[in-house]
Specification:
alpha+beta, Glutaredoxin, 5 helices, 10 strands
């Protein structure tokens, strides 16, 4: 039987995932017809988030929190990039996605790709998502998408380091990123 103290122990909101996920690697589509790979963010700390632009709740809330984190980091945020990967390539165009992320942070990068490219990157980082088929006779652009909520943090060498849960506070994220940015050496 668990004690009341054990049951009340706070759950971590920032998880150390060193050694549990592969390094940052992807080939996706960015704005203005550009192919974007991990080389685009080489030397930067990366906050990788999977979602979609028409998400009604999780994505705008997470992106607003990440924008707040970037503001709080101040000069330290110059070497941090948000990568927002759309799991809804049917509705999210590269240029539209970039406009979406720009509304939160001008240094964020919106990425999409083919269904296969997105599935490959999602599988690489154990991200789950599902796109429901439109209802018969309904507008083909009206359908539901569900997706994982975590934000993956990669250090400036591209190594997976942290997983931010949806219960991570902005203060916890800023603190974890400051420690990470200040400690990364090879």
């Amino acid at each position: 039987m668990m004690t009341a103290a054990a049951q009340a122990a706070p759950q971590p909101a920032v998880y150390d995932i060193r050694g549990h996920l592969p390094e940052l690697k992807f080939t996706l589509s960015g704005a203005q017809g550009r192919t974007v790979t991990q080389d685009e963010v080489k030397g930067k700390t990366v906050l990788l988030f999977f979602g979609y632009a028409s998400c009604p709740d999780v994505c705008p809330t997470t992106m607003a929190q990440l924008a707040d984190v970037m503001n709080r980091l101040g000069k330290e945020g110059a070497d941090v990039r948000i990568l927002f990967v759309s799991v809804d390539p049917h509705r999210d165009t590269p240029d539209g996605l970039q406009a979406y992320v720009n509304a939160f942070n001008p240094n964020a990068i919106g990425l999409t790709g083919t269904e296969r490219q997105i599935a490959d990157v999602a599988r690489r980082y154990r991200v789950s998502y599902q796109i429901d088929k439109p209802k018969p006779g309904a507008d083909p652009k009206v359908y539901n998408v569900t997706h994982s909520r975590g934000v993956y943090v990669f250090d400036s060498h591209g190594d997976a380091r942290l997983l931010l849960s949806d219960s991570s506070s902005t203060d916890e994220i800023v603190d974890a990123l400051r420690k990470l940015v200040g400690s990364v050496q090879r």
